[in-house]
User: Fold this.
Amino acid sequence: MTTRYFGAPIKRNEDKRLLTGQALFVDDVELPGMLHAAFLRSQNAHGRIKSIDVSTARARKGVVAVYTATDLGYYWQPGPLLVPPPPIAGIVFNQRTQVPLAKDKVRHVGEPIAIVIAESRYIAEDALADIMIDMEPLPAVVDLEKALAAGSATVHDDLRSNVAAHVRQTKGNYAQAAAKAHCIIKRRFLYDHGMSSPMETRGVVAQWDARAGQLTVWDTTQAPVFVRNGLAGMLSLSERQVRVIAPFVGGGFGPKIMMFYPEEVLLPWAAIKLNRPVKWIEDRLEHFFATTHERSQIHDAEIALSSDGRIVGVKDVFLHDTGAYDPYGLTVPINSQCTLLGPYVVPHYDSIFTAVFTNLPIVTPYRGAGRQHGVFVIERLLDFAARELGLDRAEIRRRNLIPPDAFPYNNEIIYQDFAPLSYDSGNYEPVLDKALALIGYKDFIASEQPKLRAQGRHVGVAIACYVEGTGIGPYEGAKVQVQANGKVSVATGIGTQGQGHFTVFAQIAADQVGVDVRNVDVVTGDTDQFYWGAGTFASRGAVVAGNAVNEASKVVRQKILKLAAEHFECAEDDLEIANGEVSIVGVPGQFIRLGELAMRANPMRGAVKPGTEPGLESTQYFGPPSGATANGVHAMIVEVDPDTLMLQVLKYVVVHDCGTVINPLILAGQIHGGVAQGIGNAFYEKLVFDDEGQLLNASLTDYLLPTSLDVPRMELAHTVTPSPLNPMGIKGAGEAGAIPVGPLFAQAIEDALGLAAQNVELCEIPLSPNRLWELVGKAHSKS
Amino acid sequence: MDSEKHDIVVTVNGMRYLRQAEARMLLSDFIRHELLLAGTHVGCEHGVCGACTILFDGHPVRACLMLAPQANGHEITTVEGLAPSPDQLHPLQQAMHDKHGLQCGYCTPGILMTMTAFLAEHPVPDEAQVREALSGNLCRCTGYQHIVDAVLEAAEKMRDVK
Assistant:
């Protein structure tokens, strides 16, 4: 191997198509005779449908069909449960999944009631106004605590309460340990995690070829293989009759893996029924209701400590808003429950949560997937503990870090992948040290902050630690094949939404097979190109699919060497592969091109030895026993304007350990983007619902995504602790940037405004200038 | 609604098109689905995200905030018209590639159109000016840092050429 691509900042293979407007996104699919769908969605958060009249809509010129729930017949079924509840003793889980079109009852604003299919989207939307609905409004369940109170309306009539799930996980014996602790600090926390808001909304195009008996679906999904299998089952088709393509997808961040969305169920059905292609593209208003959110949890948490600031134990009781349905099982609250433990030794833990049905849009994972909520609780508890015990914020964290010789570190409780929460590897203290050094922690507190304060400036510093369980199973696969043109093709079943898979998978294959990285052609998200797979979620694409690419590439390398050795009549050890050629070491001019070898691997004549496979290709699968745990520390210096309570981030540092790095350029991009979303969550983005379950700020004018003026320049540094769970030693990095930003903001703002002295504690996210004014003002009026 | 169609003659990326469209058709839909220039993306249809930004008679505008008939007789440049040739990228496209200024690439066409117009007027920008100019385009993937780096690098390269 002459060039090693793995680990180098390789520029992306996919860029040129995206930069010149040539990349195919779902809404770019244009088909002859294509029809367009629009959905009539509920205006009520909770209501009983008494009647629907679609006759006027059906009669409108240009309308081809209008369907309601009753038109679907047996096709009308609640969606599948995507993730079953984990095997935890005593668990309560009430499965209530979304339906294609509301029948009898609507359970959140935006729930689809009817689909109109017309010659254009304009006409389809005109016809929505023709539909008459008689709806009896019911009291909306919005507030998590009121939802559990006696006498509350119920989201699902067949359940006696709004309890979606109840889970308790324990480690050690918290009650016993806490009784002997030096002190116990108890607080209530509210963490609300908004919505992912990818720049491309969702969309589906379905085409039925009646002669071929072939259904093709273009879908903005993160999990095309599951969509293919599910659709085949629902439509009584063989899987080979269904092809699902997730082409270029304009960001996902979690909600695009939810399935099945009603539109994914209805478009293919309608395309077959009408024998015409049908397109639906979600508009931004629909996106606010029809795509899943993550939203809020309320934690009543306490931490028990020894006098020297060591954690004796943590107890946490929380409510989790799951929305109107719970198709994604318990992934989000289980992540909160597990990730709360962070990089710290917590000998005793008692965590109980109740997931609550509300008349709000469905909650499923969004980048971080509940980890933020847990990290906020533990990080804030440590801040308050430091204050109580007179310890430095960094020092209390340092004292509690899991030591490097304690790995693998078993936290005993069950994680989202159903395996015990065990950290594979880590070396936490150097990460903390590096972050403190880069932010200039000691110097800032000792000299800079007092100096700036003396000038009347309100500046504060913060640090926050986290771990992230990444790269979970079950498995992914990859097919690697040398083509006759000498290029290498790599196909995998996961979808891609901007993570750079076309480049990182190419780097892995190029090193093994000995070709230029630009000569590796990667295909993701097309079920006709690769049959099996789970999807892109939980920071697992690079880890799980990447290792499958590596394994398949290694086999292809062996096949190349074997065939070339036969060709040259030499030993395999005498050969080297580089620049798309196999040559004999030390014999200049003796080489054969990979493309030619590939053709020889598929001969037209001659006997082939038993056991020989045609072609230079291999399909391999990789399934890790459990997830690889990444970790990091963020640090920030912020200045707050005491009058407007607007803030400016003066310095932002991320130190991160995600094991071996495949591509530092792409990794930096992932971290930057994660931090930007974390900043949005911490200070700008809030879904504001009224008591009737109406979202009051459903536009990008009112739901504030951070702009280039809100996201600061970031300084990144890495440490490398390889994962022992995969041969490449890598850990996932997709979500890390977003996870600890909430507690970082709360801590930094408290410090900047000197809120501790005013007895103000920031125990909620998102914050905003308005909310800060309320919280600070409240304290002032009390005093 | 009256579905009377209007004749529209428009020059896009140097090519003249004659089409008909209803008065209510958004210019963004017209460009994407009538002219089949799908590189112009639609993110919000209320003028906030900037993904659909095009050059309209040389000025950056949001195609979702205009109606197709308003383009009659005008000249438009879209992302497809930015590169000087199929083998060569515009300096800003090249810098976006070199600096990893895009991830999913959905907001990228709008950013390219906004920032090429900005660079034409501000050949020597500083970071604050770049961030101000970029602040009307939302990107959910990159955190903007690499885009800012790309714009600054493109400015430098474009100055060197001149």
